[in-house]
Amino acid sequence: MAQSTYQSVVLAKRPTSLIVPGETFTVKEHKALSASDLKDGEVLVDTLYLSLDPAMRGWLNDTRSYVPPVQIGEKMRGAVIAKVLASKSAKFAEGNYVTCSTGWTEQAIAKEKELTKLEVPAGGQVTDALGVLGMTGLTAYFGLIDVGKVKAGDFVVVSGAAGATGSVVCQIAKLKGAKVLGLAGSDDKVEWLKELGCDGALNYKDPNFRAQFKEATKDLIDVFFDNVGGEILEMALSRAKAHSRFIMCGAISQYNDAKPTGPKNISMVIAMRIRMEGFIVFDYVKEFPAARRELVQWLSDGKLKRKETIVKGGLRAAEQALVALYNGINTGKLLVEVKAENANGGSRL
Q: Is CB count within 10 Å lower at the N or C end of the chain?
């Protein structure tokens, strides 16, 4: 029997620091959508998986950025894997699996140009479309290769290395012949980074981390891929080699801080002639197909590994899962299972 209603999550109040469950977002109930609601070229989709990403916190701030802020009362933005329920598009049929950015909602109507048909390559799984083969993998790819200009023999240090993007960065750096040090927030994550092939890995919560970091970077850093910002960025600047490249991908340690702080030693950029560059993956949209082909090949060849942390409980679990993201709950990609596709709730289709 078809459902009579569906839910979405909207921004209720802008957080000034931490996201507050039950206050920052609110759940709305809507009359269920149907094929009769579609116009030509539109598709009705049912959300299966929702991607949770550190950048989401920035979208809640009423400030200038690479995308407009989510407005009060507006559905929370986000990428999803969905299944086509009905279609008035020649490009998509009922039952197709797609990726799209329809946000925090159980159902949505999207224009055909807003959807990408999901294809699972050899050695892959459906959820890779939001992880290693999605924006996560592409961010790692372009950040390290284009912005960081990584080359064989480089010493690459990655903060947030056990996260969705960082873990892919570490592996691509090794594929390019670099020596890699990964930084993560638990001993289990450190062990996983070693399994991925990192030459070294450190737990930044270890009481002796500063001394360990200094020892591990005694030859100084050629490339620093930063997902964290804050104190770890400051430490990396102090260990930077002359003419090193700092790839500014994220600053998760600062996103929930009411008064974010920058590194006190920013003048090291001058003294060491560091090239520090930020980037947004959407800058490379025309190059996505070629990059995906290489990522698919590495995955199929077993040269790229990944982990996922999948939170169950449907759309209502998304808010608390987003809070948990900033507390380091995830190893690898963090997803919310909005609707189970089979009895086991697995990610394969």
A: N
